Task: inverse folding
């Protein structure tokens, strides 16, 4: 991620700009944000589209200069990014860290069944094939809720706390959160990560019911209920972004 400080002056910007790299054009979407302090260049975690978040005060010429200066970095990130994997017949997706192949079964009832065969793990998806992606997503959300509710209950009992509710979302900016009203929210995509990652995430948010901060006391609570928390933390930092590429339309 590349950043450029704002000067404070206001500017009207186009929706997109084009960068040049080795004879080809790269389209970058400009996303004005009145609260942003810096110009930030990144790849959209789901689509892979280049996006520049623009604070008020930077004119188009300065933005273009900054983006063009960092075009090699952008191209490197694009080349390193794994392709999107839509939920369709034949796709291989992780569930609890293990590879599963999606297979469509053309029968009337729309269900998802997990089969463990000699040749590997299969997610058999019944019903109309056009509804396959939605059915797989719904099944993964149910699995995520089940595992997270069990982990939260275990950790909450250990710390003698109780959340008000648990919500399952599809967020890109954070994997979990704890609100002031004691609601714990989680990204359903964590069900695709190894189980120790989900366990750490549940412990992290439950610990916020004790400490609404990241103080030393907070981390001691996390370590008490999840001694190997650093493993889960490192996995999300190093590999978590990949989870956002599943269930998304294939790259062109």
Result:
């Amino acid at each position: 991620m590349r950043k450029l400080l704002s000067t404070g002056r206001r500017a009207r910007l186009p929706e997109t700009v084009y960068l040049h790299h080795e004879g080809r054009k790269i389209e970058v979407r400009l996303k004005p944000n009145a609260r942003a302090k810096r110009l930030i260049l990144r790849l959209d975690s789901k689509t892979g589209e280049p996006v520049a978040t623009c604070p008020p005060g930077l004119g188009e010429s300065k933005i273009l200069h900054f983006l063009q200066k960092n075009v090699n970095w952008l191209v490197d990130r694009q080349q390193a990014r794994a392709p999107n994997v839509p939920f369709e017949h034949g796709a291989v997706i992780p569930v609890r860290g293990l590879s599963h192949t999606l297979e469509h079964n053309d029968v009337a009832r729309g269900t998802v069944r997990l089969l463990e065969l000699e040749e590997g793990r299969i997610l058999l998806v019944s019903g109309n094939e056009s509804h396959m992606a939605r059915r797989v997503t719904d099944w993964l959300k149910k699995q995520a809720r089940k595992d997270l509710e069990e982990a939260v209950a275990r950790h909450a009992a250990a710390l003698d706390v109780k959340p008000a509710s648990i919500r399952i979302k599809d967020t890109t900016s954070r994997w979990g959160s704890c609100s002031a009203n004691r609601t714990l929210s989680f990204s359903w995509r964590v069900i695709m990560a190894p189980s120790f990652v989900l366990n750490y995430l549940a412990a992290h948010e439950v610990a916020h019911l004790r400490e609404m901060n990241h103080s030393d006391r907070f981390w001691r609570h996390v370590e008490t209920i999840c001694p190997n928390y650093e493993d889960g933390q490192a996995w999300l930092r190093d590999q978590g972004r990949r989870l956002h590429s599943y269930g998304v339309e294939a790259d062109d």
